[in-house]
Amino acid sequence: MSLVNGKKIVLDAYKNKKAIGHFNFNNIETLKAILLACEEEKKDVIISASSSASKYISSIKLTAIITKEMASNLAPSINVCLHFDHGTIEECKEAINAGFTSVMYDGSEEEFSVNFKKTKELVEIAKKFNVSVEAEVGKIKGDKDLDNLSKPEEVKKMIETGIDFLAISVNNIHGKYPENWKGLDFKLLEKLSKENYFPFVLHGGSQIPEDQIKKAIKLGIAKINVSTEIQLANCEAIKSFVISNKINEDKNYDSRKIGEEGIKKMKELVIKKLKFFQE
Ligand code: G3H
Ligand code: ZN
Is 250 among the residues known to form the active site? Predict the structure, then answer.
């Protein structure tokens, strides 16, 4: 396994009009499923732990240690980028020190000028450690609220900080998409892509119809973040195991037996996504 930052793998995907899969994990089972899927498909991956996932695991340092060790054991032949997702500046610095090779500073709740200034400072630090940086412009909340969507002038300005890729808000949403969701704002995405030769990141990559994902990739989305769909696959698998009553047979109370049910389904889902993002 080669531990890499996100610079080359995202840029290569962008140039080839493909997207690299960014998959979030919250626990060992999910991490294992993602790594096994990527190794089987021989596809490079951005494996990602959010600030809250790291807290669940207990610390940013331990999250980095576990991920690196598991990646070298389970995914020996691919490039793995270890990404810290949706962090504060302090957490991103901690992640860099812990050995993450890529960080995302989420300054979406800040005024743009503050978001810009903090991102720029982080880029300077990250450069010294050969770590890639992702920033965010706009808020990933969707609903065509004009305050949430990325503003073209802010996107252009943010790119000047020296970041490697940028999360944009084009009516994408974290979590499950509501029935009445109006779809991605392709007009805005096209404008941003025309104005900037730069790889964009699509957060909230779960449950977006495939035709929209394809179109988004053509219009400059080079990294797609998926978490909710992986969690749902795990949840559904464990739920059917429990409902079918198999959990009461043999030694199926063993947490590894229960975990395996989820791993199987999460792995299948990640393989499907990997193939689709790079068709
Ligand atoms: O940063 C992670 C994501 O944007 C994942 O979003 O949970 O909606 O798939 P999702
Ligand atoms: Zn996100």
Answer: no
Instruction: Specify the fold of 6-232+267-277.
Output: TIM Barrel (3.20.20)
Mutate to test the pocket of ligand 1, among 26, 103, 134, 174 (most ligand atoms within 8 A of CB): 174
**Letter string b/e over residues 151-164, b meaning 16 or more CB atoms within 10 A of that residue's CB:** bbebbeebbebebb
- Cα separation, 87 vs 80, whole angstroms: 20
pLDDT, block means (10 residues), the chain with 279 residues: 97 98 98 98 98 98 98 98 98 98 97 98 98 97 77 98 98 94 96 98 98 98 98 98 95 97 98 97
> Would the annotation count 227 as a binding residue?
yes
- pTM, two decimals, is 0.98
- Ligand 1 neighbours by CB, cut-off 6 Å: 24, 85-86, 174-175, 203-206, 225-229
